[in-house]
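ok so i was messing around last nite and threw this chain in just to see what happens. nothing serious, just curious
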Amino acid sequence: MTDTMTFHKLIVLYMLSRVDFPLTRNQIGDFLTEREYTQYLALQQAIGELLDAGFVAAESARNRTHLTITPEGRQTLSFFGNQLHYSVREDVDKYLRENHFRLRNEVSVWSDYTKTASGEYSAHLVAKDRGNTLIDLTLCVPLEETASSICENWQSKNQEIYQYLISALF
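result:
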């Protein structure tokens, strides 16, 4: 394949097509840079072009962007995916098999906060499992530092909090 940008885009589309959950920019970047398929900046350009073309959709929360392939992206991959060498597809498939649970767990828990019209801060916390929302919780607090701390702690304590709520409510 002569166009390296097309190569990077096809790898991203292929990765996203092989999972049933979103992947973050960092997760895709880790795979591509560790295997020296590309450098970070070239990958970000490729992802940006995929987003602009509507082949990939993005949802951002705090410092993470979750990416999913769109129907247009799937169609493009079906047309041009054969240009991606078999060994590259095998490398992606092996990586996703070996890291499936870690990758899924990393994107299954997210948090973000915003300032409300009343001047308080709203911390939005979500935990999912296999596409099903386990908990979707919004807490309003007076200080931005508190909202930020809640979001940071959610990443490490979400299972404990979920179990507490289940046991307290049942």
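not much to say yet. The chain has a mean pLDDT of 91.
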